[in-house]
Design a protein that fits this description.
The protein has 313 residues and is an alpha+beta fold. The protein folds into three domains: 103 residues, no CATH class; 124 residues, Jelly Rolls (Sandwich); 72 residues, 3-Layer(bab) Sandwich (Phage tail protein beta-alpha-beta fold), CATH 3.55.50.30. Strands 1, 2, 3, 4, 5, 6, 7, 8, 9, 10 and 11 form an eleven-stranded mixed β-sheet that branches. Strands 13-16-15 form a three-stranded mixed β-sheet, covered by helices on one side. A hairpin with a 4-residue loop joins strand 7 and strand 8. The longest helix is centred in the N-terminal third of the chain and has 20 residues. About 14% of the residues have low confidence. GO terms for molecular function: sigma factor antagonist activity. It holds the Pfam family FecR. This is Protein FecR.
Length: 313
């Protein structure tokens, strides 16, 4: 059994556990579970392993369980399986106590608030993570898959006979020899194609839409819209720049908020002021000073964790 097959079997076992827990007296569901169990020896192994892993976590407080995994106090094989279990439970909306944030803190690669990082994957593909982003990387003999769990990435593909896909909760993006930007919002996934093209399918896989260079597509799990012209300045975060062209102040501050801790806001009377310029993402304090000077606003800081822009007093 390879690790990929083990993780998939554990996800399926976790899903069956959730279904049986939701309807413990449903004979039809138990028969379906039994059929799944008998389908493969791997399924029997996964079901037994699920019970072992759950038993091993019983009584461990959430923060301690997270620390145990983060500190590497679980042997590598069991850590891999536990990750598969947690992700599987996350898919069904069922989680063990203390594992509500598991998809992010168990990610293969992640960045903190304000951090950007680039890395080269085993096939030569370049992956850049924006602030507060998390991905899982699943390569096998037949495919290359990057799962965007949170945040934003840029992918520059390397030549390889295996297809490269980027997946979010909303759908799948298949690279067609390309460089592209993917951002995961709460209600949709936003794709900007910088070079060549990307083929997009939603999670329902009703149809596929090709998005060419210079075009963008925002999609959820519903019907795919037509691509639109992209604002390529939105990808300048890779250079540490926030490029604004007539943005309302409130929207600009919401974007800058992604790169700093604490709360960032403005008063209602200045929220609609238009802002244009290029601002540094690696020094958000300097960016705020430049914004305040451009719009003749005052910067107010409360208890170091809340910064608010208001009219000059």
């Amino acid at each position: 059994m390879n690790p990929s097959e083990q993780r998939q079997a554990l996800r399926e076992a976790a899903q069956w556990h959730a279904r049986l827990h939701a309807a413990p007296d449903c004979a039809e569901r138990r028969a379906q579970w039994q059929a799944w169990l008998d389908q493969s020896p791997l399924h029997g192994w996964a079901w037994g392993r699920l019970g072992q892993l759950q038993a091993g976590l019983v009584g461990i407080p959430g923060p301690l369980a997270r620390h145990t995994l983060a500190a590497g106090q679980v042997e590598p094989g069991r850590r891999t399986l536990l990750k598969g279990l947690v992700l599987g439970l996350g898919v069904t909306g069922v989680a063990l106590t203390g594992y509500r944030n598991a998809p992010t803190w168990l990610a293969d690669q992640r960045t903190a608030t304000g951090e950007r990082r680039s890395l080269t994957l085993q096939d030569g593909t370049r992956l850049t993570l924006n602030t507060a982003s998390a991905v899982d990387i699943r390569y096998s003999a037949g495919q290359r898959l990057i799962v965007l769990i949170e945040g934003e990435i840029v992918v520059q593909t390397a030549t390889d006979p295996r297809p490269l896909h980027v997946r979010t909760v909303h759908g799948d993006m298949r690279a067609l020899g390309t460089r592209f930007n993917v951002r995961l919002h709460a209600d949709c996934t936003e794709l900007i194609v910088i070079e060549h093209a990307v083929a997009v399918q939603t999670a329902t896989r009703e149809r596929e839409v090709r998005v060419d260079a210079g075009m963008a597509l925002a999609f959820d799990t519903g019907t795919l819209p037509e691509p639109r012209l992209a604002d390529l300045t939105r990808t300048e975060w890779r250079q540490g720049q926030l490029v604004l062209d007539g943005w309302p102040l409130r929207r600009a501050l919401a974007e800058l908020q992604r790169y700093r801790t604490g709360r960032l806001s403005c008063s209602d009377e200045v929220a609609g002021l238009q802002l244009a310029g290029v601002y540094p993402l690696d020094d958000t304090d300097r960016a705020l000073v430049a914004i305040a000077e451009a719009l003749k606003l005052e910067i107010n800081t409360y208890a170091r964790f809340w910064t608010r822009l208001t009219p000059m007093s």
